[in-house]
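I'm stuck. Protein, please.
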Amino acid sequence: MILENQKSLFNIPPDITFLNCSYMSPMLNRVKEAAVQGLEKRSNPWKLKTDDWFGPAEEARDLFAQIVNTGKENIALTPSASYGIATAAKNIHLTAKQKIVLLDQQYPSNVYSWRELSKESGAEIVTIRRNGTQNWTEAILEKINEQTGLVAVPNCHWTDGSIVDLEQVSTAVKKVNAKLVIDASQSVGALPIDVTKIKPDFLVSVGYKWLLGPYGIGYLYIDPQYGSKGTPIEYGWLNKKGSADFSKLVEYQDQYESGARRFDAGGFPSFVHLPMAIAGMKQLLSWGIENVQESISAMTDAIESKAKEFGLKAPEKNTRAGHMIGITYPQEEIAALNKRLAEHQVFVSFRGDKIRIAPHLYNDVNDVERLFDVLKR
């Protein structure tokens, strides 16, 4: 279902054309209100109750679980995607005979931990590049074999939205008993994702892009097999069993809280960030992720069509996610174009030789026309 324009729910001035949700989402009014309420609560610590520490965390855990179709027992709270990837790396053990599969120009958060693991284990990193008309899924499947120990990929490439069929990749990964780690930061909240079908070992996402939440809150899905035996990357008190009873914190515990909670980052009960994250995810679920994807896709389809009219190259609809698109543009002209767009209050991202365009429900066809008016000049 195509949703009506939702710009009234955001604080976006009429002269601003923001087509850059893949960079950072504008703030919903209700998210801003949640932040103010959180600050008011934090300003009076004598009013804080035990449930203020743990209740919002459980609600955020549950909302994210609904978005990726799992139970909240499988969700840990992190401050970033890199924290989640580092947690995955600590719990994946490779040998020098195995290989780590990554995509060319993959986002750094899903690269650096694997470079460290490669140094420690001796496992070789294989960086996949597409040949000719090959899509990412075909390129990945071509490289998975008995030597593969880990495949760490996004489900759409951050530079242009090119899609990866994670179900196909997962099937191939499981056949060779390898591990699958997904950075879904550029799709969770805008593209339906079902971990019961994909079956990753770990899946991470930040909260400040398509989840419409604040910077500093992220999420980590963990396959249940790690929930009872995995190793966190820090040893705080909040994720230990019985931590809600502050009077007994010096009765040190070796046991963790159940499920993925053992992997929660220290300081996760943020009295400001969590209410913001909750407000954003509630709004998304009320819209319906499928409806969000369909609605944004109508705009990126129009962008693809317009780009081709201008003689510019853009990925075909069946090869990309519907919520973002990268138009190839002469790299030597990008700096000048970026300046022109900013002068006209049109905001996109530039990644490599791509104009990355990522609209949301606060955009409409007029924003698309405004972008191409500037390109035309």
In short: The chain has two domains: 7-19+289-376, 39-286. Residues 101 and 151 are 5 Å apart (CA to CA). The longest strand covers residues 148-154. DSSP finds twelve helices and twelve strands in the chain.
